[in-house]
Amino acid sequence: MKRRALPSRSEHAYRALMTVAYPRRFRERFGEELCDLFRDRYYEARSASGGRSVAMLWLQILGDLLSSGLREHACEWAQRRQREVLDTSDSPFPHRHVSLPRALLSDARFALRVFRKNPVFVGIAVLVVSLGTGAVSTIFSVANAIVLRPIPGVTDASRVVEIARTRQGENGTLSASYPYYRHLQKGTKTLSGVAAWAMASVVATPSTQGVAILGDAVSGNYFSVLGVRPALGTVFSGDDDVALMNEGVGVISYAFWKRYYGGDSSVVGRSMRVNGIPTVIIGVAPPRFTGVYPALRTDIWLPLGMRARLHETRDGFDDPNMSYMQLVGALRPGVSREAAREELTTLTAQYATSKSVGENKAMSEYTAAKVYAVAGVPGEVAGAVTGFFAILLAIAALVLMIASVNVASMLLARAVVRRREIAVRMALGASKRRLVRQLLVESVMLFTAGGAAGTLLAFWGTRLLQRIELPIDVPLELDVTPDGRVLVVTLLVAIVTGILFGLAPALQGSRLDVQSTLRSDTAGSGRRKSRLRDGLIVGQIAMSLLLLSSAGLFIRALGRGKAADPGFSADGVVTANIDVESAGYNEAKARLLFRELSDRMAAVPSVEAVAWGRILPLSMSNSGYDVSIPGFTPPNGKTDDSFVVSSNVVDGAYFAALKIPIVRGRAFKRADDEHSASVAIVSESFAKRYFGAREALGAMIRRDGKPVTIIGIAKDSKFAKLDEEHEPFLYLPSAQEWRSTGNILLRTRGAAESVSAALLREMASLDPTLPPPRITTLRQATAVVLLPQRVAAAVTGALGIVGLLLAAVGLYGVLSFSTAQRTRELGVRLALGASRIGIMRLVLRDGIRLVVGGVTVGLALAFLATRALRPFLFGLNPLDPLTFVVIALTLVGVSVVATAIPAHRASTTDPMLSMREE
Amino acid sequence: MPTDPKHFLPLKPADFLLLLALVEEEQHGYALARELAERSDGAIRLEPGNLYRIIKRLVDEGLVDVAARRPVSELDDERRRYYRITSLGARVAAQEVRRLRALLSSSAVRALPALVPVGERI
Residues of B numbered 32-51 whose beta carbons fall under 8 angstroms of chain A's beta carbons: which are they? Predict the structure, then answer.
């Protein structure tokens, strides 16, 4: 028996599309079978390689629905026509059977003739549509580059997956250790191979000056698993990472090769220093390959075994506790991600209980595996990033809809103008169906042209977006230029909107009374028609309100985020990341350098305080330490057990430099060094949560079993996220938790520039071979937490203005038009003694009624929709009254202006002239 | 409805392959789609809509009809409809084979190899 699964969402969608695409008779006869077949194809695609195949299937299916649907309709029409002709052949022109494609072609030709006669109309319509499609296309381009586009440079990107281990039922993942990696690599049958890699910031010296670049330390099979072939030379091969341990060899990126070696093909075999280690370049990666996450620009690949020497650390090849690697694998043909996940979970569970994991309880809890498709960003955050882009895309879609409504109103207005032409054609025997088709073809052509122009706009829009500077410390390389996929999607969107928004005007246009129209009776413009137009305007204003209120909420959230008190003071603090570990310093040498640099910087007149912090607060990085607290029961229910607490490693001056008050006890001193007893400072929330009524100051906690005394309690401050509640936090002294990489923090009195210059000077005089650090202010560095809000506020703000203008123009256009239609009526009113104020009030009232309707509907929609923005609002109420009042008033104000102009014009018509006109 | 097989010639490639696929056994839609893809080396891939358009036309023309009996129940999926070739369909397919055979034995086909590179010789 076949598996008969519950209907999926895709199947529901297919059914819905079917009812649109096919004539009823065809559906009744074959509908069920079509669905069966679709379901088979769907499961086939899903089990083949997941999301991408399903997306491809949908593209094919949409094409299929469109082409077979059109032909089937044509068939039905032809048959019906035949019957009609046989029944009543009262038309003066006998019908010829014309195939649909040919009929559409002749419609298109006719449309072109019509367009040529109305270039201004066509120009405006295309421009308006292009604004909407351009917005959609721009946002989609970026989303495409970040989450949809497969890794460039590998043979079969659809089969590459990321693997991570996790605790059963939890989301957080743990990096891989070497033994775990080997366990999977040996055991897997669903993957053709598993490769390991770890990011490594290094300093390379292709010339005399060192450059800080991002590198990857990779397992020997990395390139073969990903299917990456070198552009020049060779890449690592083989499965033996230990053998590669002592060789200084590297593969450089294509961009690095071009930049530092001028694309010289004799580069293979040349040597450069990487973190001081002589390294022979054995190959150049293919042009577009920049590692597993294309958005991060990786410039060198080194053997995993070299990492230990690069960073003065152990390689941990036999240590299950050293978890620092990320895993990628390639699915074997025909294996689904789900099947791989099941197998890897079994292997992971096996590993967790194996002897090599031994006594480490924390590690043995990781018994499940996750398998992600590789996107431009790490699998764990892909969900959040996708959600963010979905919101932006929805907002762009609003702009498109507003623009489409404008065009629909224009088409409606034109249908009125063309009434006589249409009536003549009907009188000559054109069927209503034929006319609707003709009008639809015209609107689809307008929208398609608008879509094409929109894609052009997207080239410009993405360039604009790329100018947003990202306050992130890693080299980013993201090509957001629209590609083929963007073009196809934009055109499809344009065609669909063209049909949707062209349908009503087309139906309206073909519904007219031939006789009265031909008798040139203009009075009967009809109540229905204006009701449709009114509906469009109400919808348009409602959508503008929705659009503007999301923009307003993001802007308010941004302001709120900026004004939020993080618990420390970032103003006046200059900071730089200094990484001497990469430059090959050992601990003793690094301590000396750091101390010397601190002393020299403290002597600079405008520097108030010099401090060190391993991680900068609110900079999107986070670290945690395992601690246990005697007498405290962590969530797993085992008293005295260890759990992870957010933490940072800082020196004694850190609290003063960031103005974080120590409420009780004291800050670290220089005497708290590697030779004295271990100490820690905790946050107030830490003391409250873990000690309750007991005294935390002076109490002892355990870290790796060793006792650590709490010597101070610091005021709470925010560390990872701006909207976090105060989290328990642990500070450890840098002298006791040494790492040769960290951030220097300089609280300054004067201008940041002079301090930056002093820092560069002192660094260079201490060691001229060190790469100059990137100096920034703490304000800038912490701006990264506001990045989503900044991007969203900028994008929705810009789109909001476009939307508002479009809506205003739409309202103005519709009122002008309907006023023009009513010229004679207004003339009669004036002639009969109506006052000019009265006429003006009449027209204004019409406009205001629409605006009020639109604002009401818009508010209702916004109340429902803005909830989706909540994760990005820093606790701001999605129904923030201030935002909504301001936006509603703005909209009303703009609309009143748009209404007042036609109203004024109406009141100044000359009654004699207007009545003589007809 | 025309009953002279010649009336239907020449058959479109997809129609011909579909008729051939039904010669040996009755098939349902999914199997037909796969068979068509296979027999045409992947050149003819039909998604549901276009596949059933062709089936509908062939049924309306009387070349194919819905199978009355069902294959063995274990292999069967209770909802699927099976199609079989009609005698008219078989005659049309046979006529098409005859037409193609005549075409293949024409002098032009015999002279063709001289014009193409060695690797692409028939």
Answer: 33, 45-51
Backbone phi, psi, residue B13, to 5°: -55, -45
Q: Which of A81-85, A248-252, A623-627 has the highest mean pLDDT?
A: A248-252
Rounded to whole angstroms, how far apart are CA atoms A599 and A910? Answer: 87
**SS3 state at A523:** coil
Question: Distance between alpha carbon A195 and the CA centroid of its chain, in Å?
Answer: 28
pLDDT digits (tens, 9 = 90+) for A761-796: 888 888 877 777 778 888 877 777 777 788 888 888
- Report whether pLDDT(A831) > 50: yes
Closest CB to A37: pick one of B33, B53, B56.
Answer: B33
The B residues from 6 to 35 touching A (CB cutoff 8 Å) are: 28-30, 33
Answer whether residue A339 shows pLDDT above 70.
yes
Q: What is the pLDDT of residue A41?
A: 83
Residues 6+ apart with CB under 8 A from B95: B5, B6, B8, B9
Take residue A831 and report the two structure tokens written for it: 């002639």
Mutate to test the interface with A, among B44, B53, B54 (most CBs of A within 10 A): B53
Give B20 to chain A, closest Cα distance, Å: 20
Q: List the alpha helices (DSSP H) in A573-643.
A: 587-602
The answer to whether the Cα torsion of A377, A379, A380, A381 is positive or negative is positive
CA closest to B29 among chain A residues: A37
| Terminal Cα-to-Cα distance of chain A (whole angstroms) | 75
Structural tokens at position A545: 């309100």
What is Dmax (Cα atoms) for chain B?
54
Residues of A in contact with B28 (CB under 8 A): 33
Q: Are B49 and A64 in contact (CB under 8 A)?
A: yes
Token pair listed for A746:
């300089």
CB within 8 Å of A196: residues ≥ 6 apart: A176, A178, A181, A218, A219, A222, A304, A325, A326, A327
Q: Do A36 and B50 touch (CB under 8 A)?
A: no
The answer, as to whether pTM is greater than 0.80, is: no
Name the closest residue on chain B to residue A17, using Cα atoms. Answer: B49
Specify the length of chain A in residues.
918
**Which H or E element spans position B39?**
helix B29-39
DSSP secondary structure, A11-49, as one string: HHHHHHHHHHHS-HHHHHHHHHHHHHHHHHHHHHHHHHH
Mark yes or no for CB contact B48/A38 under 8 Å: yes
Q: What are phi and psi of A578, to 5 degrees?
A: -120, 120
Chain A: residue whose CA lies nearest to B32: A37
**Which amino acid would we find at residue A633?**
T
What average pLDDT does range A304-325 have in this prediction? 75
pLDDT at position A3 is: 44
Out of A1, A36, A68, name the one closest to residue B29 (CB). A36
Residue A825 banded pLDDT, cuts 50, 70, 90: confident
Q: State phi, psi for A613 to the nearest 5 degrees.
A: -145, 135
Among A64, A65, A73, A79, the strongest candidate for a mutation testing the B interface, having the largest count of B CBs within 10 A, is A64
- Asked if A29 and B56 come within 8 Å (Cβ–Cβ), the reply is yes
pLDDT score at A81: 72
* CA of A71 vs chain B CAs: smallest distance (Å): 9
Q: What is the DSSP secondary structure assignment for residue A147, as one 8-state letter?
A: I
Interchain pair B48, A34: CB under 8 A: yes
Is the ipTM beyond the 0.85 threshold? no
SS3 of residue A742 by DSSP: strand
Closest chain B CA to residue A67: B50
Q: Which residue has the tokens 């220093």?
A: A273
C-alpha–C-alpha distance, residues B9 and A26, integer Å: 26
How many beta-carbon contacts under 8 Å exist across A and B? 58
- Cα A40 off chain centre by: 32
**pLDDT of A284:** 93
In this structure, how many other beta carbons lie within 10 angstroms of the beta carbon of residue A747? 22
Q: Which residues of B touch A64 (CB under 8 A)?
A: 46-50
